[in-house]
From TrEMBL:
Residue intervals of the Orn/DAP/Arg decarboxylase 2 N-terminal domain: 39-280
Protein source organism: Enterococcus lactis
Name of the encoding gene: lysA
Protein name as it appears in the record: Diaminopimelate decarboxylase
HAMAP family the UniProt entry points to: LysA
PROSITE patterns per record: ODR_DC_2_1
Taxonomic lineage from the root: Bacteria, Bacillati, Bacillota, Bacilli, Lactobacillales
């Protein structure tokens, strides 16, 4: 095989049909991952639910796919709610997150029967109490807790981030007041506790510490509550990343939760998780066309027709990616190169250093594992148009988001008569 094939379609066919830069999603890969989550996240002792953290990649077509697997949804803004509603996502499976939800967003949620709210702080619970009364809606509240555990890929810190902008510490006065308010409210009901300890986690130890913390709080309650462990399952961006197979990781989380509950003679209503990146990340590939090639005294650049506008992660987090010349897979990687984007910014580098075959202008470059937080964090900087998104499966491709046209750049602009 000398050419990259995604979902049964060659990269060159995709580039010809949809142009580049292009976000390509392997639908079967996403389906397989969702199946692994479905199979791995089950317990004989309590109910379980997987919520897709849609901030990783949200389009109507994606939400439909997620719904096929019976997953719920984590949304974090009015805009994400709007998209979920347009996708006809079951409203009782949507959980509304965020540390600073506006009154308008909360009203929008309540009016549309989105009644699971993950509340971040006391002021939010106070506002929810007022709004739930005003709109006569019973709201299930999960409190976002800061359990003091922070995962950094392979290690974790226990007393990390007490000043995080997210959540409350269970012991804090603010959290206890929030709990009291929920207890006294006739519209709010405590559904349980939520925590999210980080992203791109490769070792389950931090989650086990989180489970210990969360279950320890449950002893203060007579009724069984639900626990949401958040997302953060790591994926493979480059050869250096060694994620744990998803079913294996989930099995460990389930078993540990069962043991922690058993030890304390507790039951829970439901255990939830919220993976985002792990569902879509590795399924996504970005196709670029190489334009100019340039040598400087110490470097060789391959310039591509996109960059930080379609993938801000290298500039923002120094994120690393693997790539290939999509039509020269079997050629020797003799060139040490930097892949840079076309935006007017020195930091617009897609891959700092990699080895590739000798390229010529017009060659296709495939950057792997771009499915999470690429499209969703894309921008129109430099008036770049957002690339198209396609799903491929079984040798067929379908357009999910059309490429922006220049006219899309002016949408919303108000022009005044110069006279
Ligand atoms: N749940 C909560 C409450 C979260 O804050 C997040 C991610 C997730 C779930 C999903 O985490 P995941 O499974 O995708 O790691 N833009 C960054 C990632 C920000 C993550 C924010 N929260 C990136 O590109 O790496």
């Amino acid at each position: 095989m000398t050419e990259l094939i995604i979902g049964g379609v060659t990269a060159s066919t995709l580039a010809e049909k949809y142009q580049t830069p292009l976000y390509v999603y392997d639908e079967e890969k996403m389906r397989q991952t969702m199946l692994s989550f479905k199979r791995g996240f089950v317990s004989k002792h309590f109910d379980t639910k997987v919520l897709y953290a849609s901030k990783a990649f949200q389009t109507i077509e994606m939400l439909r796919l997620v719904h096929e697997y019976g997953f719920g949804l984590d949304v974090v803004s009015g805009g994400e709610i709007y998209t979920a509603l347009q996708a006809d996502f079951p409203r009782d499976a949507i959980y509304f997150h965020g540390n600073n939800k506006t009154p308008e967003e909360l009203i929008y949620a309540l009016e549309n029967e989105l009644l699971h709210v993950v509340a971040d702080n006391l002021m939010e619970v106070e506002l929810l109490e007022e709004l739930s009364q005003r709109y006569s809606k019973k709201v299930d509240v999960m409190l976002r807790l800061n359990v003091g555990v922070e995962a950094h890929t392979h290690e974790y810190i226990v007393t990390a981030h007490i000043d995080s902008k997210f959540g409350m510490s269970y012991e804090s006065k603010e959290c206890q007041q929030a709990l009291q308010l929920i207890k006294e409210s006739s519209y709010l009901e405590l559904e349980g506790f939520h925590a999210h300890i980080g992203s791109q986690i490769f070792d389950v130890t931090a989650w086990l510490a989180e489970i210990d913390k969360l279950t320890s709080y449950l002893t203060d309650f007579e009724q069984p509550l639900s626990l949401n462990l958040g997302g953060g399952f790591g994926i493979r961006y480059t050869q250096n990343d060694q994620p744990i197979p998803i079913e294996e990781a989930l099995k460990k989380l389930i078993e540990y939760t069962e043991e922690a509950l058993d030890k304390r003679k507790l039951t829970i209503r439901q255990l939830l998780i919220e993976p985002g990146r792990s569902i879509v990340g590795e399924a996504g590939t970005t196709l670029y066309t190489i334009g100019f090639i340039k040598k400087t005294p110490h470097k060789k650049y391959y310039f591509v027709d996109g960059g930080m506008t379609d993938n801000i992660r290298p500039a923002l987090y120094q994120a690393a990616y693997d790539c290939d010349l999509a039509e020269k897979l079997s050629e020797e990687k003799t060139e040490k190169v930097t892949i840079a984007g076309k935006m007017c910014e020195s930091g617009d580098v897609v891959i700092k250093e990699t080895y590739l075959p000798k390229a010529k202008s017009g060659d296709l470059l495939a950057v792997y594992s771009t499915g999470a937080y690429g499209y969703s964090m894309s921008s129109n900087y430099n008036r770049a148009t957002r690339p198209a998104v396609v799903f491929v499966n079984n040798g067929q491709s379908r357009l999910v988001v059309r490429r922006q046209a220049f006219s899309d750049l002016l949408r919303g602009e108000v022009s005044y008569d110069p006279s």
